[in-house]
Amino acid sequence: MKTATVTPSINQIEYHPYLQHGGVDGPLLNYMRENNIANSAYRPLTAVTKAKPGLCDEVYAELAKKYYVSEREIALRWCIDLDVVAITTSGKEERLGDYLRAMTFKLTPKEIGQIAEAGEKKHFRRFWQGKFDENDRS
User: Fold this and answer.
1) 43 band by pLDDT with thresholds 50, 70 and 90
2) Please, what's the largest Cα pairwise distance for the chain?
């Protein structure tokens, strides 16, 4: 932070398995952790809602079956277990209630890694597509 006089408390970025900004232990997330800047993810459900088919589909399906939840809840839990503040919206009361189930279980480190590894094999940016090179994963 060469020019900032105040360290931000949070940084909101598009974040999901197909846009990990260098990986779960990559330079961006590590920088944010080292500087006590929270990562706030918008569009954390993208791999489930907008980027199908993808390599995370099978992993999400298996985990949803294991935990008796939806794939959307697995996507939210993945972010939460990475200490990422997941922001999502819905106009459907039932879906909002379903999202609360993401707080009733925890993914194992192996499961978190499976999702991250599958996600790294596909690149998908939902927003700001015209502002970044199509292969830019930062």
Assistant:
1) confident
2) 48
